[in-house]
UniProtKB/TrEMBL annotation:
Pfam families: Bro-N. It comes from Paramuricea clavata. This is Uncharacterized protein. It comes from the Eukaryota.
Length: 125
């Protein structure tokens, strides 16, 4: 199941995909949030192969995931890959983004299966 997370305070949006207990982050979204000048290069340079996969690979391994409108080669990050990109960034946004993901997003997904936006926030407003 694909989900979009937005943090208006940080002015960031990141897509994730979940299957069972596994949560993966769209690598390009994360690299752009962290303001890497070249997201593809950042992903290739900073994230080990075992900590990322492609949308195509992920679809092959999972049966009930509905994903549409994305290229098969789209890079997805496992949680460890997410941390590798965050820790490689030297910008202040990296610390704030990491705090939000680790404190709010991931615990919520693990407990409830999703992340609820604060009621005052809207994805479309």
């Amino acid at each position: 199941m694909e989900q979009l997370f937005r943090n208006r305070k940080l002015n960031v949006s990141v897509r994730t995909v979940k299957s069972g207990e596994e949560v993966l982050f769209y690598a390009k979204d994360v690299a752009e949030v962290l303001r890497y000048a070249n997201p593809r290069k950042a992903i290739r340079t900073h994230v080990w192969s075992k900590n990322k996969t492609t949308l195509d690979e992920f679809k092959r391994r999972t049966e009930s995931v509905l994903l549409c409108g994305n290229q098969p080669g789209t890079a997805l990050l496992y949680e460890q890959g997410l941390y590798q990109l965050i820790f490689s960034s030297k910008l202040p946004i990296a610390e704030a983004f990491q705090d939000w993901v680790v404190t709010d997003v991931l615990p919520s997904i693990r407990k409830t299966g999703s992340y609820k936006l604060p009621e005052s926030e809207s994805l479309y407003g």
